[in-house]
Amino acid sequence: MEASWNFRFGIVILGDSAVGKSSLLHRYTEGTFDDSRQSPLGIDFKVHHLDFDPGVVIKMLLWDTAGQERFRSIAKSYMRNSVGCLLVFDISQRPTFERIHSWQQEVLDYVKPNPMIFMLVGHKCDLDVRREVTTLEAEALAKKLNMVGYLEVSSKDNTNVSLAFQTLAQGIYNQFQKRRISIRDGCGMGSGSDNFTLDTDDKQVAQK
Ligand SMILES: Nc1nc2c(ncn2[C@@H]2O[C@H](COP(=O)(O)OP(=O)(O)O)[C@@H](O)[C@H]2O)c(=O)[nH]1
Ligand SMILES: [Mg+2]
């Protein structure tokens, strides 16, 4: 049976190479963490249904960059139908934090004039003893760059993984309710119908 959903949000996961983006996506969608991996996971797309509110299901289309971030050429088609972005850095690698602003700029330059909702993730928070970025300064950056929030996350320990995706989804939902983003923006959001009623036609995704 096809899953039913009320809203469909396209979300991209971006940040420097090795900050743990694929691990984060894997933990969220599969519930596991594999420390032994040597080669990149090579995931590039996952679907996850989020029971958002009673009676509201959000279908998240989650895009991972699968290695292209090394060349700083974001796979632009990923962003075309996305409305949200998790920007990820590694709390134990300061340069990955310092590049967050330019990641955001790159995304905004590409998607304009369409809106994009950002959430900041300080990843690998299990490595607290090797921390090179404080919680306070990361929170301040998220605020300065107009993001929906900042969370410290560990895919290894499964800390705040679901909450990070949920917080971003909530931020997108809020903007939608305030009419700051709409299905007409072509941002990968909608129920598959014009009046936002429940739609059970999962094939809509294939058109994305
Ligand atoms: N300590 C720790 N290591 C992690 C965590 N998430 C990922 N890693 C490790 O970081 C490395 C890069 O992870 P990967 O998901 O491939 O990063 P990506 O290049 O951003 O997709 C791998 O060796 C992972 O095992 C985490 O939450 N904590
Ligand atoms: Mg990866």
TrEMBL record:
Keyword annotations: GTP-binding, Nucleotide-binding
Family as reported in the entry's similarity comment: Belongs to the small GTPase superfamily. Rab family.
Name of the protein in question: Ras-related protein Rab-39B
First and last residue of the signal peptide: none
Gene: LOC105895495
Keyword GTP-binding listed: yes
Superkingdom field: Eukaryota
PANTHER family, per the entry: DRAB11-RELATED
A GO term for molecular function: GTP binding
A Pfam family it matches: Ras
